[in-house]
Amino acid sequence: MATVRATSRRRASAPLERTVHLDPVPHALADRHRTDTPSRWYVLKTRIGAERTVARVLDHAGFEHYLPLVPRFREEAFGTTQTEEPLFDSMLFLRGDDDAVRFAWSTHRVATIHTIENQSRFDRQLRQIRAALDAGAVLALGTPIRDGRAMQVIDGPYEGIEGFVESTIDPEGLRLPLDDVRLTTVLDVEASQLAPLDSNAFRHPGEAA
């Protein structure tokens, strides 16, 4: 995973507000990403607490992106409250061309931008995480898989989601990795809801796709 470095001057890393007032986006800017440059996935590492702001700016400008959010529950004096927080701290994903990358830099809230080497694997793995979150899963961060077996959920709200388990006898959840950023999430499912996948259907982490 290579790192794209900024070529333009950026603001000092002072604390940034979590919200931003957006000016109307010119039509030329909204159409800027419609070029012949191939569309690719990038990892945006933002300033602390700026994930939502960057996502809102990208959305306003019409650039494809994904910010995984998970529910968080807090006990308050008047009861339990639920909020949504980013699954990965200071990280979201951008899919676009060179103009999309330049626009992300222009927000002044992005610290680094990483290119994804294995685009097909990253896209496949991110789709598993997105499907789980869309189905209401509360994913947790897990440890990297050392020697996993490819499995698929065959029953329940997460049916069809693919991942890995380290032990088929007593699996501690289905691991959903993002190998290119060295992160792993865990989906809480019962062993009876899992079935082995063909070895070529979903490769072991670290193997070429």
Q: How would you describe this structure to a colleague?
A:
With 209 residues, the chain is of the alpha+beta class. It contains four helices and 13 strands. It has a five-stranded antiparallel β-sheet with strand order 1-7-2-6-3, with helices on both faces. Strands 8-12-11 form a three-stranded antiparallel β-sheet, covered by helices on one side. It has a three-stranded antiparallel β-sheet with strand order 10-9-13, with no helix packed on it. A hairpin with a 2-residue loop joins strand 4 (69-76) and strand 5 (79-86).
What coarse outline follows from CA principal-axis ratios?
A: globular
> Helicity, in percent?
10-25%
β-strand number = 13
Q: N-to-C terminal Cα separation, in Å?
A: 15 Å
Low-confidence stretches: 5-34
